[in-house]
Amino acid sequence: MVIDTNIVLDLLLFRDPSTAALAQALAQGSLIWYATTGMRDELQRVLTYPAMQPWLARADRDAAPGVLAQFDQLSQVHAEVPTGPPRCSDPDDQKFIDLALALQALLLSKDQAVLRLRRALAARAVTVARGFRA
User: In sequence order, what are the residues at sequence separation of 6 or more whose Cβ sits closer than 8 angstroms to the Cβ of residue 99?
Assistant: First the structure.
C-alpha cells in the first residue's frame, strides 16, 4: 500500500477516526506501507507549514519528530522509482502514483488530482481509495 501525505497526516497527526482501521492494520503488521525518502521529505516539509503548528502544539510531545518517527516505524522504505504515465496534474503527487504503479499497490489518497486518475490507474492494476476498510 502507498499512502499520500494528507492521509498520513490524518493517521499520524490528526488521529482522524476514519483512519482507525488503517492504524490497527499497520500496528498488527497485516498491511505493508511502502514509502520513499521523497515521501518522508514531503511530510517533514509539510509539518513545518504554519497551518500545522496548532495541531503540533496540541500534541503532548515533540510532535513533528514523533510523527516522523511513527512514519519510519510503520512504513517500509522503497527505492525511488522512475516517473511514467499516467501523469498527475500535481507534480507533488506523482511520486505516490509512480510507487503504486511500480508495486501494483493500493494507493490511499484524498487528493483530487490523484482521484481523477482512478480509471487510468485501474487499467494498470492500481486501485485508488480515499480510505482503508478492513
Answer: 2, 34, 35, 36, 39, 78, 81, 105
Q: What is the pLDDT of residues 74-110, one digit of tens each?
A: 999 999 999 989 999 999 999 999 999 999 999 999 9
- E strand spans, 21-127: 33-35, 75-77, 107-108
The CB-side HSE value for 99 (13 A sphere, CA atoms) comes to 23
Domain harbouring 79, CATH code: 3.40.50.1010
Closest by CA to 94, choosing from 18, 42, 46, 17, is 42
What's the predicted TM-score (pTM) here? 0.94
Q: Is 34 helix (H, G, I), strand (E, B) or coil?
A: strand
Domain residue limits at 73: 2-129
